[in-house]
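Continuing the series of single-chain predictions for the mutant panel. This is the parent chain; the variants come on the following pages.
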Amino acid sequence: MFAEKLRRKLYYRLVSVGGMKWSIFLAGVLILATFATRQTSTADQKVVAETWRREDKLRERLEGWKSIMLDLDVSRVRHTHQDPHRSEGGAQPFRLLDPCLADLVEVEGGQIMALGDLSGRVAAVTFQQGSVCRNTLKVIGVEGTWRGGLVEGAVTVREEDGSVLHAAMHRGVINGMVKKLRCKYQDCDLELEDKDENIEPRVEQYLEYLAIYQDGRVLQAAPSWWFPVGGGALFCTPDHKVKADGSDCLYLYPDLKTGLAGFWRAGSMVQATPAVLTGLHLQLGMLIPEFRLTRPSLFYKEDISNSHTISKQPLVPDIFEEQRVYVAESVLANAGFGLFARRDFVAGDLLSFYNGVRLSDHESRLRKEHRRSTYRIQGWGDTILDIPKVYTNLRNYTATLGHKINHSKKNNAEFSLYKHPRFGEIIGVYATKTIKAGMEVFVNYGYIEKYIATQGVLDGMLNFARVAGGWDDKHEFRIEMKRTIGYVRNKVDEMKPILSAVKMARTFL
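Parent structure:
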């Protein structure tokens, strides 16, 4: 623990004082120091052990770099990236907050004033209702050193969904490395102090992306990283909206080894081929991956389900999942098939994926097949994922296998949200304890019912309040709600009648 803290402190100090040349040098020293103590294997295991050591090194190096970047003060990192397509006499520098200079803001302490009048102080400001920044830019607040309504130096920008942007500004123009932080499940506008271990505290502590800016705009020629919900990473160049866009991109699954390499457009996978990570090197502060194609003749495309079609390639398995689990007869009596581990896992490992046809909650209740389905599961937001009867047979669907997992109160896995490059926003199956190869995987459905019911109450109350109570601001409403409904977490069953009443009221209104 002490060595890890010292490593981060040294990296931060040298980057702050000496710029990116020092960071490259230090990163090399740290990597050598980290992996110089690997033990040698016996002769009969040398080849296998060497392969595993290489993979461990790459994973640890990528995770270590990501950890450093998470803590790094990006406002002190100098950059020398240049966009070859942007001429010196090109577009004028872009100031993010220029449209907001006339907006009224609340300064710490309760003072209300126009943003353009704020000068000569370090302050965090919150934009008022109806402001341009809130309505157009989706920015709730900004913290920095102000001069004539412009930020100079380090800046923190808090967006409507609760995510936070960290950058450096000169006269209100962003330049250099930018990092965006989010909560585990993206939306962190409701900061509930929840003691339920199955519900993640909503604190913006997860990297969303790392990108380089020049003259207030993202540098589209520079490499960037994205870290999707559920784990894994995507390396690519960005478009003007900071979405992955390029022909030489690499998506890495949460093992940070198995990958898909190919072409992304506007954040979506257009076509990619199975690949494996083979190396990493630093380039001006950004870690650059090296990879090798493993099955060049196999191509994947984004294949997000709709209300009728589960997949355009229902019999093409996921390359990550097929290495980790298989389907066989369950050890439970009369349970049919179950999901089994192909290898050993520890708590936190991703095992499998749960894809399905995609329905709104309302749509899922219109047809008896979906209402009574034992495969329906809550997805992201209002989305319901379900497996139609025809696809429950392995002869018709094997693209994902998570729906074959059986229920047990003595579970060793759980469901959690996952952003998949092929299937989009689906559910992942994660180990909650050690699982040995050959063991069956079980999930306890009960705990997630509690979370879903609570979220349903909150969403229903919010929509009802918008109509009946005149609440327009989602962020303020939810912050207010957290002061009054903390008891819901321990009394979900008691709240179900209220949820039903709210739904009825919404239907009536």
